[in-house]
């Protein structure tokens, strides 16, 4: 814990009160959270961020991270102070070029600018810091940043930003990003968006520069540092493709490349089904250090174990599906996680149909039959799983069954119209489950409350697999596991593991 002088903060607060006295403005501290019912401390109130410029130096030996993050924002109300979500040791803070006082505890960095801030005022917040991220723990003893054998990975969901840059850490406040990290020569740095080049420095270090020009959530902003083979190419649509493979992948390396190198092909397929790709670059990163896969915007990251049985394009379809469902259209609250995971899981069903390894109906039938009626699986509600079950298998599998139930109910034409108009309507924004239900009813012209109540909000196993009766398949006739489902199961095994 690092706490600045309380007396200094009191003086600054008093100055802010003086500024607003005698006016129509009622200034108060900005809220320390955005009101997410699952994670009340996530995000902050009183301002909206438009851009983060993250400029860092990282020494793999000792896991030493230092540098400056400059935040461009606008006050959304009259405030005397505001919070940033951040856990590393702060050296100084300036707000609009004036030194600001601050205090820091339990992941909340409380900033008190001189004179307070008026609604609509532009903000330039400069935070300088220096720490060892892997040594920084939250209240539960958890560290999201991981030191690896040759560098580090800053990747996680629902939180990672607080371990490497200060932010308004919630999907409802997206921004553009510049990420620039200097490392010793011979070390590579991966992040989101377009690669802007590598600059050699005079001290035997090199600076790696990345830029995301589309709105991006903080938890989807990542950095991977270490020894990587980097492959750059151009997708058929002209976008840059950057894929990176850790030099420690071992015998899984070729299978990983046989999967990730097909990223543009999978994106083309998904565009046909759910609408135009929303971002400016493509790619993927594979590392042995993650334990799961995550849909980092433009450049998902995959653990090498996904490829231990050979090529696995299902996990690629899942994480790229998130580029629409989760990245472009993000959750309004973390309770809305079905909008991310249910649809990304269903993209695996669609990909299975596309490559001829099992229809969506076959995969839905097998998934339904895989969980007996008395399984705890059926007690988790994908529409409201609870903070401790956000990444439960039911959110993925029962979530995908819900999507299939919608497809069966409205028919293919309306189903794909719903998906395409939804991703267009909510592009670069956030959404709730209730908004999606209303949208599906509007496009289909059908009442769908019963369907969604059954599959999202009612405990217990529904009486029948969605679509099974309509295609005349008896429950016991699905005895063979679809070819695709073996790899989909592996995908879920790893996706569900080690998430915080």
UniProtKB/TrEMBL annotation:
Its EC number is 3.4.11.2. It catalyses: Release of an N-terminal amino acid, Xaa-|-Yaa- from a peptide, amide or arylamide. Xaa is preferably Ala, but may be most amino acids including Pro (slow action). When a terminal hydrophobic residue is followed by a prolyl residue, the two may be released as an intact Xaa-Pro dipeptide. Keywords: Hydrolase, Metal-binding, Metalloprotease, Protease, Signal, Zinc. The keyword Membrane does not apply. Residues 1-26 form the signal peptide. PANTHER family: AMINOPEPTIDASE N, PROTEASE M1 ZINC METALLOPROTEASE. This is Aminopeptidase N. It comes from Lentzea tibetensis.
């Amino acid at each position: 814990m690092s706490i600045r002088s309380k007396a200094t903060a009191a003086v600054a607060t008093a100055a802010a009160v003086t500024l607003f006295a005698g006016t129509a403005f009622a200034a108060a501290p900005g809220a320390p959270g955005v009101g997410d019912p699952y994670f009340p401390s996530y995000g902050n109130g009183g301002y909206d961020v438009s851009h983060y410029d993250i400029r860092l130096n990282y020494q793999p030996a000792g896991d030493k991270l230092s540098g400056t993050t400059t935040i461009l924002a606008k006050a959304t109300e009259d405030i005397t102070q505001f919070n940033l979500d951040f856990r590393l040791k702060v050296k100084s803070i300036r707000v609009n070029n004036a030194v600001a006082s601050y205090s820091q505890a339990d992941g909340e960095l409380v900033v008190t600018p001189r004179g307070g801030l008026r609604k609509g005022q532009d903000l330039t917040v400069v935070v300088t810091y220096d720490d060892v991220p892997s040594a920084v723990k939250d209240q539960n003893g958890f560290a999201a940043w991981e030191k690896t054998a040759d560098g580090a990975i800053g990747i996680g969901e629902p939180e990672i930003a607080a371990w490497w840059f200060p932010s308004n850490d919630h999907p409802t406040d997206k921004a553009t990003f510049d990420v620039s990290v200097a490392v010793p020569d011979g070390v590579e740095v991966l992040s989101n968006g377009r690669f802007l080049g590598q600059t050699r420095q005079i001290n035997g270090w090199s600076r790696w520069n990345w830029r995301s020009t589309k709105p991006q959530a903080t938890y989807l902003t990542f950095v991977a540092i270490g020894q990587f083979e980097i492959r750059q190419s151009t997708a058929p649509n002209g976008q840059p493709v950057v894929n990176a493979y850790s030099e420690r992948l071992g015998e899984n390396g070729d299978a990983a490349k046989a999967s990730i190198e097909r990223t543009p092909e999978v994106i083309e397929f998904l565009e046909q089904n759910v609408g135009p790709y929303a971002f400016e670059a493509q790619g993927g990163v594979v590392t042995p250090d993650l334990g799961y896969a995550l849909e980092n915007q433009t450049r998902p990251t995959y653990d090498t174990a996904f490829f231990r049985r050979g090529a696995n394009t299902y996990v690629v379809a899942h994480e790229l599906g998130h580029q629409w469902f989760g990245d472009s259209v993000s959750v309004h609250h973390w309770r809305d996680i079905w909008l991310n995971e249910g649809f990304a899981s269903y993209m695996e069903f669609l990909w299975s149909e596309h490559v001829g390894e099992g229809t969506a109906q076959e995969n839905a039938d097998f998934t339904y039959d895989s969980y007996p009626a008395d399984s705890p699986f059926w007690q988790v509600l994908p529409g409201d799983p609870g903070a401790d079950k956000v990444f439960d298998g039911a959110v993925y599998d029962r979530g995908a069954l819900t999507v299939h139930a919608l497809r069966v109910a409205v028919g293919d034409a309306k189903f794909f119209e719903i998906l395409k108009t939804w991703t267009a309507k909510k592009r670069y924004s956030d959404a709730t489950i209730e908004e999606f239900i209303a949208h599906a009813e509007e496009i289909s012209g059908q009442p769908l409350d019963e369907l969604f109540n059954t599959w999202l909000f009612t405990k217990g196993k529904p009486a029948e697999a969605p679509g099974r009766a309509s295609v005349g398949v008896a429950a016991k006739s699905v005895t063979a596991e679809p070819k695709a489902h073996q790899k989909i199961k592996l995908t879920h095994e790893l996706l569900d593991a080690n998430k915080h």
